[in-house]
Specification:
The complex is a heterodimer. Chain A is mostly helical. Chain A has two domains: 44 residues, no CATH class; 61 residues. Chain A is 50% helix and 0% strand. In chain A, helix 3 runs antiparallel to helix 4. By secondary structure, chain B is an alpha+beta fold. Chain B has a domain of 95 residues. In chain B, strands 7-3-2-1-9-8 form a six-stranded mixed beta sheet. The model of chain B has no long low-confidence stretch (mean pLDDT 91). Classes of the chains: A mainly alpha, B alpha+beta. The interface between A and B is medium-sized, with 31 and 25 residues.
């Protein structure tokens, strides 16, 4: 099994992400048609650390109870994790498509876009694309 | 030890489990059957058991009710947890063993998901065929 990777199946969000779907879609086609496996298929994805696990547990309680204390604890433990911070926004009365999301996305990009998956090798858009 | 009146404990895993609990020193003690329902492991004389696997375990029992220390069981199984005494809630990461195993051996667990009609299908239905799993969220 090739581990999970954050990829795009269309260019709907290319303006925001700066990432074209073309290289990834070519990888998928080559695998389906030719059985060609990408070089990164043997990449080992690291498990969550204890802070990320605890963040998910606090978020689990917060999602069930809407407890602001547990929302805050979850965000403190995993401040750049979309599945915690962005997913919390609508549950806390915020807008996951609004300014707070773009603030999060800027912090995430400045931190090197960390996530648990294969590091991106497929192409980003050139500046003039 | 300080005893609290018997009250409800809600355990959050992938599912939600409600059970009676006796609280000592802000720790919930629950029935053995509720341990199995919520954590998936059964307390037997030989220890904590699931299918063919058992690990040695001696339960910590509350003397009056015979209930077992829920967090002690979760910690013995290596399940990280967060307890909120005031809310009567415990969130438990029962997925940790499966997750770490899948990350190491890179074999997809035989997950089961509903199709658009609600009928459940498992990955093994397409064994020896190429499978592309797409996960996305509309947020």
């Amino acid at each position: 099994m090739r581990p999970n990777a954050g990829e795009f199946g269309s260019d709907t969000f290319s303006e925001l992400t700066g990432i074209s779907c073309a290289d990834h879609m070519n990888q998928v086609k080559a695998w389906v048609k030719e059985g060609e496996v990408p070089e990164d298929a043997d990449h080992t994805v690291e498990d969550f650390d204890i802070n990320e696990i605890k963040a998910r547990l606090h978020f689990r309680i917060a999602a069930d109870t809407r407890s602001e204390y547990h929302f805050q604890k979850a965000e403190e433990l995993a401040p750049l994790d979309f599945t915690i911070v962005r997913a919390s926004m609508p549950l806390r009365g915020g807008n996951p498509f609004g300014e707070e999301f773009f603030d999060l996305y800027e912090r995430y990009q400045k931190a090197g876009s960390p996530y648990h998956g294969i590091p991106r090798k497929t192409a980003r858009l050139r500046e003039n694309d | 030890m300080e005893k609290k009146a018997t009250s409800n404990l809600r355990v959050l895993t992938q599912n939600t489990h409600d059970m009676n609990a006796v609280w000592y020193d802000q720790r919930p003690f629950v029935k053995e059957t509720d341990v199995e329902k919520s954590l998936g492991w059964e307390i037997k004389p030989e220890g904590l058991c699931k299918e063919e696997s058992c690990i040695p375990y001696t339960p910590l029992n509350e003397p009056d009710s015979g209930y077992v220390d829920f967090l002690d069981v979760a910690n013995t199984l290596g399940f990280s947890n967060v307890l909120d005494v005031d809310l009567g809630l415990a969130a438990v990461d029962t997925f940790s063993l499966l997750r770490s195993s899948a990350l190491k051996d890179r074999k997809a667990p035989d997950i089961e998901l509903p199709d658009v009609g609600g009928e459940l299908h498992s990955l093994s239905e397409w064994s020896n065929k190429k499978k592309l799993l797409v996960a996305f969220s509309s947020w």
